[in-house]
Task: inverse folding
């Protein structure tokens, strides 16, 4: 099995890998803003999320589609509040992962981020933080109009990173996304935490 440092390229998912998953308080806040019971809110939140991530639905369309599923509608102010709360809920950066990325780049490895995310979150990352500057390449679903586990985002990321699939390792918390990466020839690891990811690589 390859050692931890034997790969030329490293590709990281964002949510659940580089940032924590949405917290319970964040989820409760989103549902309260919407005025929809939390379980029902997140049923429609995830049902239409890939379309939002791909850019098939823009901000107002996504939130109104969610509202319609729950039998209601949102005014413009509530949509803005929901969009902002949603962005903030995906900003809990996991410090050890960002330290690891910096270490990999100092060691001469190529590092990328490949994530399904809507335009609101991607543009917030660009304008409010310097996090995307930590990578040699970034592929975001709304920019390529395609989302994992479709093959195109992986291929786009590999091309931008400049490494071959067999010399590249990919980390994602979603098994479906990991399996899709393996079908393309990447060494893919289902991510639970940094220590477990390193153990699997060893």
Result:
């Amino acid at each position: 099995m390859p050692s931890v440092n034997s790969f030329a390229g490293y590709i990281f998912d964002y949510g659940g890998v580089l940032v924590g998953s949405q917290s319970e308080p964040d989820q409760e806040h989103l549902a309260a803003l919407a005025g929809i019971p939390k379980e029902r809110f997140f049923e429609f939140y995830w049902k239409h999320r890939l379309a939002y991530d791909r850019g098939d639905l823009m901000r107002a369309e996504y939130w109104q589609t969610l509202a319609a599923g729950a039998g209601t509608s949102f005014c413009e102010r509530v949509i803005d509040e929901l969009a902002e709360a949603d962005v903030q809920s995906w900003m809990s950066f996991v410090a050890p992962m960002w330290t690891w990325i910096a270490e990999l780049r100092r060691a001469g490895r190529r590092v990328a981020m490949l994530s399904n995310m809507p335009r609101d979150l991607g543009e917030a990352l660009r304008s409010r933080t310097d996090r995307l500057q930590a990578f040699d390449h970034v592929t975001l679903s709304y920019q390529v109009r395609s989302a994992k586990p479709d093959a195109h985002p992986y291929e786009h990321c590999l091309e931008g990173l400049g490494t071959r699939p067999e010399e590249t390792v990919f980390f994602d918390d979603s098994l479906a996304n990991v399996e899709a990466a393996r079908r393309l020839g990447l060494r893919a690891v289902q991510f639970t935490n940094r220590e477990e990811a390193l153990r699997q690589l060893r």
In short: Residues 98 and 152 are 26 Å apart (CA to CA). The mean pLDDT is 94. Strands lie at 9-12, 110-115, 137-140, 168-172, 187-190.
